[in-house]
Every structure is written in structure tokens, then in C-alpha cells.
Amino acid sequence: MKKRIGILTGGGDCPGLNPAIRGCVYAAQKYGYECVGLIDGWKGLMEGAATPLNREITEYLVMKGGTILGTSRTNPLKSEDGVKKCLATFKKLDLHALVAMGGDDTLGVAARLYKDHKLNIVGVPKTMDNDLNATDYTFGFDTSVTRAMDAAQSLMDTGASHHRIMVLEVMGRHAGWVALYTAIAAAADFVCIPERKIDTSEMIRKLRESYARKRFALVVTSEAAEMPEAGEDKIKHELDQFGHRILKDRGMGEHISQFIEKQTGIETRFAVIGHMQRGGAPTLFDRILATRVGIKAAELVHTGRFGMMSSLVDNRIVGVPLAQAVGELKTVSEDWFELMELMF
Ligand code: F6P
Question: Is the distance from CB of 131 to CB of 173 less than 8 angstroms?
């Protein structure tokens, strides 16, 4: 009988998950394994909800956004018998190994299950936020930024026609990578990221200067950027099962837009791209990266390198310890601030 590998996708979906599943299934079959998918991330492992996966089912997944396995933000470590249920399903489905595809949260659970229960587990890095350590990039990021960049350019057209300041709010939670890359790539006039408190007088000075020169301006803000006077600590945010603030009603784009209009007297509009930057077909870069890390995950299982994550390092796909990837987010480092000064 063939050994069986379970695959799950957890956390926010992003383009690249399907190509990664496909790569993993193709490689696993080559090594002589069969695969099953767990439905909706850790929830599926807790509840024993599984579906068969093979080459035929996954053949055309390379161009498909989202995840055919479904996902959730369920954290088994948060419920009393969550881990027990995961271990029971692992046994019941007769799994030889589990491939967990996710960001810091999903892989944090994987790392714990490996450490505490010696479960045969490997990780695959994904997240549109690009905030995972121990890998140069995560798939999902390139597609999200490409979409946000297109949106920013569209806003710029309207800004130029109506002589307005346009503000685009993008996702990225605690990391400003999406906002920063979008702003650089779309030739924005100012960028707001959570890693750097907004210098509001500097922002207004720069926007006035840009507007005087070309009669429009573009600002890209991360959903999690902070105005110095916002009194953020006093705002009560709903938290998900991993303890992250749910930022959906925070309205940073609107807040900044109102502030700019009030300070400059220039007509200002904002747009929030939201989940549109997280769906749809993956870019070429994400299709290839996802395929490569998916294949590597099957290889890590086959060679018995559990507790590892497939990772992009200097354009090579290698195995790194899961423990190195999780626990602390990779946020925009200070060496980027100099570049920001130059570009905005
Ligand atoms: O972590 C990915 C992400 O898209 C963040 O950038 C964003 O803050 C969050 O997920 C949104 O989560 P949800 O889809 O659960 O609203």
C-alpha cells in the first residue's frame, strides 16, 4: 500500500496556493505516495474532513487563484482538545506526513505539532503580506502587489484628469511590504507603512510640492499605518484566533484622505482595494515559485526532513527549519527607509 501525504492550506488565501498543491501532488506521486487534501486548513485536520488529490484533479490548477482545499483561520492550539483531534485524524487517515501551506500562523501551529508531538510535518511558505522569515519571498505577494500597482495607476489617471490627490489603501496587516512595493512601482508621491509613524507635516509638505508641479498626487497607505494622533491604543480591535487585530473597519485610507484634504484644501479621494488584491490568477512569478516550493515539500517528506519548510534563498529552493520561519514577522527594515526618502 502507498504511503499517504495530507496537504492543508491555512490562513488568508492567496494566489499560488493551487499551483503549490499541484507541485506537491505531482512530486509526491513521482516518489510513490498518494495524497489527500484536508478541507479548510487546521479545521479539516481537527474534524477529519478530507478529499482525494491526484495529478488529474490538480492538472490545471497552476492558473487558478484561491485554494481548492478551502482555508480558515482556525487555530487548534486555542481549543481545549484541538491538538488531540488533529493527532487523531492524522492516525485515522493513516497519514505518513502532513504538508502545511501557510504564513506565520499556520506554520506556527505546524512548528508546535512537530516540536511537541514529533508529527511528520513540513511547511510551505505563503502569504500576500510577504512577512515570513527564512524565505526571500512568499508566493501571493507578487500577484497582490501587481494588482495593487495596476489599481494605483488607474487612480493616478483619475487624479490627473480631475486634479485631485488620490489615496490607495492596500492590505499587508503588520508589514508594509505591499504598500511599499506598490508605491515604488506606481511612482506614488508618498507611502505610509506601519513600520514608520507618519510624519504628517512632511507628508503634507511633499504632497503640496507634488501637486504644485503636476496638479495631482498619489498616496499609497498600508491598512495598518498609523497617524501620530490616532490614539490607536485606545481603539478596541476584534482579534482573530491567532491574536491578530482584524483591520477590516479601520479605514486608514479614508482617515488619511480626510486629513490631507483638510490640511491642503485640495480635493482628495480614497479607494480601498481590499480582497481584490488577494484573488484571481497568480502572476508568472508566483506560479513558478509556488510550484517549486510545493515540489520541494514532497521531497522533504520523501527524504524524512520533518520540521522543515521549503524556502526560497538566493533563488534556490532549500529546506530551512520551520522554527526559523515563525514567531517573529519579517517587517520593513530600516535600510529601506533611505530608499523611501529618495523615492517619496
Ligand atoms: O494576512 C493576509 C491578509 O490579507 C492581511 O493582509 C489582511 O489584514 C488580512 O489577511 C485580512 O484577513 P481576512 O481575509 O480574514 O479579512
Answer: yes
Among 13, 105, 129, 189, the one annotated catalytic: 129
Report yes or no on 129 lying in a domain: yes
Counting the structural domains of the chain, the total is 2
Can you give the pTM of this predicted structure? 0.96
Q: Which of 131, 171, 222, 245 most suits a substitution to test ligand 1, by most atoms within 8 Å of the C-beta? A: 171
173 touches ligand 1 (CB under 6 Å): yes
pLDDT at 127 over 70: yes
Ligand 1 atom closest to the Cα of residue 244 is 8
Q: For the segment 284-331, what is each residue's pLDDT rounded down to a tens digit?
A: 999 999 999 999 999 999 999 999 999 999 999 999 999 999 999 999
Considering the domain architecture, whether residues 239 and 308 belong to the same structural domain is answered as no
Q: Which residues contact 102 (CB under 8 A, 6 or more apart)?
A: 9, 10, 11, 41, 110, 123, 124, 125, 126, 127
- Asked whether residue 160 falls in the same domain as residue 268, the answer is yes
Domain of 170, in residue numbers: 145-277
pLDDT of residue 247: 75
